[in-house]
Recover the amino acids of this structure.
């Protein structure tokens, strides 16, 4: 069997707000919108991210099982710095973490869904993560 991740589906409380957040942050495009659903794409597929509005949905309790975060890989350190600057402009709390093999920004979307934007910093494909987690300055990228 060969498989690939098809898309991520997030429940949100305000569809318009979520669409604005993800299209502004990641340059996703809306490919379709039906009732309380929106489908967003990076361009190669119908959708990479599905958003479903359920204004009455509750958030999972802290430390519960389930999706921890969805991660988006960016191409360059400059893009990661620009992402950080955009998040700062939006007054979104960000935790920058250098994993040794990647530099990551962790934050929540407006509905509290965990999001990571990162750039892979491995110099060769054999490099493995060894538990390295330190803070870094995204503006220095």
């Amino acid at each position: 069997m060969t498989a690939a991740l098809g898309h991520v589906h997030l429940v949100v409380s305000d569809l318009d707000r979520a669409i604005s957040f993800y299209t502004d942050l990641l340059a996703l495009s809306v490919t379709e919108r039906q009732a309380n659903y929106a489908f967003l794409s990076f361009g190669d597929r119908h959708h990479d991210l599905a958003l479903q509005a359920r204004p009455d949905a509750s958030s999972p309790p802290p430390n519960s099982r389930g999706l921890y975060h969805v991660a988006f890989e960016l191409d360059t350190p400059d893009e990661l710095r620009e992402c950080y600057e955009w998040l700062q402009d939006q007054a979104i709390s960000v935790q920058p973490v250098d994993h040794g093999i990647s530099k990551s920004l962790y934050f929540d979307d407006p509905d509290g869904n965990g999001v990571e934007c990162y750039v892979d910093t491995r110099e060769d494909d054999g490099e493995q993560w060894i538990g390295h987690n330190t803070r870094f300055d995204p503006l220095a990228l």
Residues 77-89 form the longest helix (13 residues). Helices lie at 15-26, 77-89. The chain has two domains: 1-56, 68-141. The CA atoms of residues 59 and 112 lie 8 Å apart.
